[in-house]
Amino acid sequence: MASSLICSETHSRVSSVLNRDVKQYGKKYLFDRNEETCWNSDQGECQWVCLEFPQSVKVSELKVQFQGGFSAKTCRLDGCPKDGAFTEISHFYPEDNNSLQSFPIQEAPAVDKVKIMFENSADFFGRIIVYSLDVLGGKAS
Question: What is the pTM of this model?
Fold first, then answer.
């Protein structure tokens, strides 16, 4: 059964933070399981979240909760081995609402890093607001 791949040893990076205000809108709020906090990107096209896992994994599902009006319309999941280049794994298409959405990932290869690309936003200025993000799967054998 798939479980969360995000742990204390998972390194994360984001494309931007609104007004560089990491205390209020930083990447740590993607994973804190608190519905009062969020990661809020700054303006611009193609915002992203990059995760590096402590070991090779196989991703089976993504779960993401946007703020309605600030969701991505099209998303792409890329992955790569430890020293390799990112390649496309899957596309997914969230709805523009506040609900927790789940996206199964079919036949993902073993990867050490993933990059979730929010290719465009429902917001005119390109901002993305995410209340929670989880990557499910298992260790690669």
Answer: 0.94
Q: For domain 3-139, give its CATH number from 3.40.50.1000, 2.60.120.260, 3.40.50.150, 2.60.120.560.
A: 2.60.120.260
Closest to 122 measured CA to CA, from 76, 75, 60, 78: 75
* pLDDT at residue number 65: 97
| Alpha-carbon distances, residue 126 vs 62, 75, 78, 82 (angstroms) | 21, 13, 20, 30
42 in Cβ contact with 19 (< 8 Å): yes
Q: What is the pLDDT of residue 83?
A: 87
Question: Which pLDDT does position 94 carry in this prediction?
Answer: 97
Q: Domain extents for the chain?
A: 3-139
The answer to whether 122 touches 73, Cβ cutoff 8 Å, is: yes
- Give the count of beta carbons closer than 10 Å to the beta carbon of residue 52: 16
Rounded Cα distance between 7 and 19, Å, is: 27
DSSP 25: H
**Contacts (Cβ under 8 Å, ≥6 apart) of 22:** none
